[in-house]
Amino acid sequence: MAPKVFVALAGNIGTGKSTAARLLSRHFGFEIFHEPVLDNRFLKAYYQDMTRWSFTLQMEFLLKRIEHHMMIERHTGSCVQDRTLIEDPEIFAKYLHGLGHLSDNELDLYFDYFQRFSTQVSQPNKVILLHTPDVNVLLKRIALRGREEERGITAAFLNGLNGYYNSFASVAQSKYNTQVLSVDITNLDIREGAGKCQFLEEVQVFLTADLPPDNQLPFAIAPTQS
Q1: Which of 83, 81, 84 minimizes the C-alpha distance to 32?
Q2: Looking at the domain assignment, is residue 179 inside a domain?
Q3: What is the CA radius of gyration of the chain?
Q4: Integer distance in angstroms from the first to the last C-alpha of the chain?
Q5: What sequence ranges are listed for the domain Deoxynucleoside kinase (predicted)?
Q6: Residue 214 has pLDDT above 60, yes or no
Q7: How many CB atoms lie within 10 A of CB 75?
Q8: Which pLDDT score is estimated for 205?
Q9: In a domain, 214, yes or no
Q10: Whole-angstrom Cα distance, residue 199 to residue 205?
Protein backbone atom coordinates (compact mmCIF):
# COMPACT_ATOMS: atom_id res chain seq x y z
CA MET A 1 0.00 0.00 0.00
CA ALA A 2 1.29 3.45 -0.91
CA PRO A 3 2.14 5.69 2.05
CA LYS A 4 -0.24 8.44 3.09
CA VAL A 5 1.32 11.89 2.88
CA PHE A 6 0.13 15.02 4.68
CA VAL A 7 1.66 18.10 3.05
CA ALA A 8 0.84 21.70 4.02
CA LEU A 9 1.42 25.08 2.38
CA ALA A 10 2.93 27.97 4.35
CA GLY A 11 3.66 31.58 3.46
CA ASN A 12 2.85 35.23 3.87
CA ILE A 13 -0.49 36.71 2.79
CA GLY A 14 -0.67 36.69 -1.01
CA THR A 15 2.13 34.22 -1.76
CA GLY A 16 -0.25 31.88 -3.60
CA LYS A 17 -0.85 29.12 -1.05
CA SER A 18 -4.42 28.45 -2.20
CA THR A 19 -3.34 28.28 -5.84
CA ALA A 20 -0.52 25.90 -4.95
CA ALA A 21 -2.80 23.72 -2.85
CA ARG A 22 -5.33 23.41 -5.68
CA LEU A 23 -2.54 22.60 -8.13
CA LEU A 24 -1.11 19.84 -5.93
CA SER A 25 -4.59 18.47 -5.26
CA ARG A 26 -5.42 18.21 -8.97
CA HIS A 27 -2.02 16.96 -10.13
CA PHE A 28 -1.25 14.44 -7.40
CA GLY A 29 -4.78 13.48 -6.35
CA PHE A 30 -4.50 14.83 -2.80
CA GLU A 31 -7.60 15.72 -0.80
CA ILE A 32 -7.53 19.48 -0.25
CA PHE A 33 -8.28 21.29 3.00
CA HIS A 34 -8.74 25.01 2.35
CA GLU A 35 -7.74 27.74 4.78
CA PRO A 36 -10.86 28.81 6.73
CA VAL A 37 -10.70 32.46 5.66
CA LEU A 38 -13.76 33.23 3.59
CA ASP A 39 -16.17 31.87 6.20
CA ASN A 40 -14.34 33.38 9.18
CA ARG A 41 -16.76 35.32 11.39
CA PHE A 42 -14.20 37.82 12.66
CA LEU A 43 -11.85 38.56 9.75
CA LYS A 44 -13.53 41.77 8.56
CA ALA A 45 -13.76 43.15 12.09
CA TYR A 46 -10.11 42.15 12.69
CA TYR A 47 -8.79 44.23 9.80
CA GLN A 48 -10.86 47.18 11.00
CA ASP A 49 -9.65 46.96 14.63
CA MET A 50 -6.76 44.55 15.19
CA THR A 51 -6.30 45.35 18.86
CA ARG A 52 -9.92 44.48 19.65
CA TRP A 53 -10.15 41.33 17.51
CA SER A 54 -6.66 39.75 17.26
CA PHE A 55 -7.12 37.30 20.13
CA THR A 56 -10.60 36.33 18.95
CA LEU A 57 -9.38 35.76 15.39
CA GLN A 58 -6.41 33.67 16.49
CA MET A 59 -8.67 31.47 18.60
CA GLU A 60 -11.08 31.04 15.68
CA PHE A 61 -8.24 29.98 13.39
CA LEU A 62 -6.84 27.63 16.02
CA LEU A 63 -10.13 25.79 16.41
CA LYS A 64 -10.70 25.57 12.64
CA ARG A 65 -7.20 24.28 11.95
CA ILE A 66 -7.42 21.67 14.72
CA GLU A 67 -10.68 20.49 13.14
CA HIS A 68 -8.85 20.19 9.81
CA HIS A 69 -6.07 18.14 11.40
CA MET A 70 -8.59 15.77 12.96
CA MET A 71 -10.34 15.33 9.61
CA ILE A 72 -6.99 14.74 7.89
CA GLU A 73 -6.06 12.05 10.41
CA ARG A 74 -9.35 10.25 9.68
CA HIS A 75 -8.90 10.53 5.91
CA THR A 76 -7.27 7.43 4.41
CA GLY A 77 -5.59 9.14 1.46
CA SER A 78 -2.93 11.80 1.07
CA CYS A 79 -3.92 15.40 1.88
CA VAL A 80 -2.79 18.94 1.20
CA GLN A 81 -3.59 21.75 3.66
CA ASP A 82 -3.75 25.45 2.77
CA ARG A 83 -1.67 27.07 5.57
CA THR A 84 -0.13 25.25 8.52
CA LEU A 85 -1.32 25.09 12.09
CA ILE A 86 2.06 26.26 13.43
CA GLU A 87 2.13 29.54 11.50
CA ASP A 88 -0.38 31.06 13.91
CA PRO A 89 1.65 30.58 17.12
CA GLU A 90 5.08 30.98 15.54
CA ILE A 91 4.33 33.95 13.28
CA PHE A 92 0.96 35.67 13.57
CA ALA A 93 0.39 35.53 17.33
CA LYS A 94 3.96 36.63 18.08
CA TYR A 95 3.83 39.39 15.47
CA LEU A 96 0.48 40.73 16.67
CA HIS A 97 1.80 40.69 20.24
CA GLY A 98 4.87 42.64 19.12
CA LEU A 99 2.62 45.22 17.47
CA GLY A 100 0.63 45.62 20.67
CA HIS A 101 -2.54 43.98 19.34
CA LEU A 102 -2.26 41.06 21.78
CA SER A 103 -1.56 41.65 25.46
CA ASP A 104 0.92 39.51 27.37
CA ASN A 105 -1.94 37.66 29.07
CA GLU A 106 -3.77 37.09 25.78
CA LEU A 107 -0.61 35.68 24.18
CA ASP A 108 -0.02 33.39 27.16
CA LEU A 109 -3.63 32.20 27.06
CA TYR A 110 -3.45 31.59 23.32
CA PHE A 111 -0.33 29.45 23.78
CA ASP A 112 -2.03 27.54 26.61
CA TYR A 113 -4.83 26.61 24.23
CA PHE A 114 -2.41 25.83 21.40
CA GLN A 115 -0.34 23.50 23.57
CA ARG A 116 -3.46 21.74 24.83
CA PHE A 117 -4.99 21.21 21.39
CA SER A 118 -1.86 20.62 19.29
CA THR A 119 -0.83 17.58 21.34
CA GLN A 120 -3.97 15.83 20.06
CA VAL A 121 -3.01 16.03 16.37
CA SER A 122 -0.06 15.23 14.11
CA GLN A 123 1.98 17.78 12.19
CA PRO A 124 2.36 17.51 8.39
CA ASN A 125 4.97 15.14 7.00
CA LYS A 126 6.17 17.95 4.73
CA VAL A 127 5.68 21.71 4.45
CA ILE A 128 6.10 23.82 1.31
CA LEU A 129 6.98 27.42 2.15
CA LEU A 130 6.19 30.00 -0.53
CA HIS A 131 8.10 33.22 0.02
CA THR A 132 9.33 36.46 -1.54
CA PRO A 133 11.35 39.36 -0.13
CA ASP A 134 9.41 41.76 -2.40
CA VAL A 135 6.16 42.68 -0.65
CA ASN A 136 5.04 44.58 -3.76
CA VAL A 137 4.51 41.15 -5.34
CA LEU A 138 2.23 40.26 -2.43
CA LEU A 139 0.33 43.56 -2.60
CA LYS A 140 -0.36 43.05 -6.31
CA ARG A 141 -1.67 39.54 -5.72
CA ILE A 142 -3.81 40.65 -2.78
CA ALA A 143 -5.32 43.41 -4.92
CA LEU A 144 -5.91 40.98 -7.78
CA ARG A 145 -7.96 38.55 -5.71
CA GLY A 146 -10.03 41.46 -4.42
CA ARG A 147 -11.06 40.42 -0.93
CA GLU A 148 -12.79 43.41 0.60
CA GLU A 149 -11.48 42.77 4.12
CA GLU A 150 -7.85 42.76 2.88
CA ARG A 151 -7.91 46.21 1.25
CA GLY A 152 -6.20 47.85 4.23
CA ILE A 153 -3.17 45.54 4.32
CA THR A 154 0.01 47.61 4.02
CA ALA A 155 3.54 46.95 2.82
CA ALA A 156 4.79 47.60 6.36
CA PHE A 157 2.49 44.91 7.79
CA LEU A 158 3.64 42.37 5.19
CA ASN A 159 7.29 43.28 5.75
CA GLY A 160 6.85 42.59 9.45
CA LEU A 161 5.39 39.16 8.73
CA ASN A 162 8.26 38.45 6.33
CA GLY A 163 10.66 38.99 9.21
CA TYR A 164 9.10 36.03 11.01
CA TYR A 165 8.83 33.93 7.85
CA ASN A 166 12.58 34.30 7.29
CA SER A 167 13.16 31.91 10.21
CA PHE A 168 10.05 29.75 9.74
CA ALA A 169 11.79 26.86 7.98
CA SER A 170 14.39 26.45 10.73
CA VAL A 171 11.71 26.74 13.45
CA ALA A 172 9.51 24.11 11.77
CA GLN A 173 12.43 21.74 11.36
CA SER A 174 14.00 22.16 14.80
CA LYS A 175 10.91 22.67 16.97
CA TYR A 176 8.30 20.55 15.18
CA ASN A 177 10.54 18.06 13.33
CA THR A 178 8.87 19.01 10.04
CA GLN A 179 10.75 19.10 6.74
CA VAL A 180 10.34 22.31 4.72
CA LEU A 181 10.82 23.06 1.03
CA SER A 182 11.30 26.81 0.41
CA VAL A 183 10.14 28.13 -2.97
CA ASP A 184 10.84 31.72 -3.99
CA ILE A 185 7.78 32.93 -5.92
CA THR A 186 9.07 36.44 -6.70
CA ASN A 187 9.49 35.66 -10.40
CA LEU A 188 7.74 32.29 -10.49
CA ASP A 189 4.21 31.92 -11.84
CA ILE A 190 3.11 28.42 -10.84
CA ARG A 191 -0.27 28.65 -12.54
CA GLU A 192 0.85 27.55 -16.01
CA GLY A 193 3.69 26.78 -18.36
CA ALA A 194 7.31 26.45 -17.30
CA GLY A 195 6.70 27.85 -13.83
CA LYS A 196 4.04 25.26 -13.14
CA CYS A 197 6.28 22.42 -14.34
CA GLN A 198 9.23 23.69 -12.31
CA PHE A 199 7.12 23.89 -9.15
CA LEU A 200 5.65 20.40 -9.59
CA GLU A 201 9.07 18.92 -10.24
CA GLU A 202 10.51 20.51 -7.08
CA VAL A 203 7.58 19.21 -5.03
CA GLN A 204 7.89 15.73 -6.58
CA VAL A 205 11.54 15.47 -5.55
CA PHE A 206 10.79 16.87 -2.08
CA LEU A 207 7.94 14.47 -1.36
CA THR A 208 9.75 11.35 -2.52
CA ALA A 209 13.31 12.09 -1.38
CA ASP A 210 13.23 9.95 1.76
CA LEU A 211 11.07 7.09 0.46
CA PRO A 212 12.64 3.76 -0.56
CA PRO A 213 12.37 2.82 -4.25
CA ASP A 214 9.84 0.06 -3.55
CA ASN A 215 7.52 2.33 -1.54
CA GLN A 216 7.13 5.41 -3.71
CA LEU A 217 4.08 7.59 -3.86
CA PRO A 218 1.67 6.74 -6.70
CA PHE A 219 2.30 9.79 -8.84
CA ALA A 220 4.82 11.10 -11.29
CA ILE A 221 5.39 14.26 -13.26
CA ALA A 222 3.59 14.15 -16.60
CA PRO A 223 3.79 16.76 -19.37
CA THR A 224 1.72 19.72 -18.21
CA GLN A 225 -0.37 21.80 -20.56
CA SER A 226 -0.35 25.57 -19.98
Answers
A1: 81
A2: yes
A3: 17
A4: 32
A5: 9-192
A6: no
A7: 14
A8: 93
A9: no
A10: 10
**150 pLDDT exceeds 70?**
yes
Do 204 and 220 form a contact (C-beta atoms < 8 A)?
Answer: yes
| Angle in degrees, 0-180, between the axes of helices 17-28 and 193-208, rounded to the nearest 10 | 70
Instruction: Output the DSSP codes for the chain.
Output: -PPP-EEEEEESTTS-HHHHHHHHHHHH-PEEE--TTTT-SSHHHHHH-HHHHHHHHHHHHHHHHHHHHHHHHH-SS-EEEES-TTHIIIIIHHHHHHTTSS-HHHHHHHHHHHHHHHTTSPPPSEEEEEE-S-HHHHHHHHHHHT-GGGTT--HHHHHHHHHHHTTHHHHHHHHS--EEEEEE-TT--TTSHHHHHHHHHHHHHHHHTTS-GGG--S--------
Does residue 132 sit within a domain? yes
Which of 43, 59, 53 minimizes the C-alpha distance to 153? 43
Query: Domain containing 124 — which CATH number?
Result: 3.40.50.300
The model's pLDDT over 39-73, given as tens digits with 9 standing for 90+, comes to: 678 888 998 999 999 999 999 999 999 999 999 99
Strand partners, 210: none
pLDDT in tens, 169-181: 999 999 999 999 9
Domain coverage including residue 120: 6-197
**Total tally of structural domains belonging to the chain:** 1
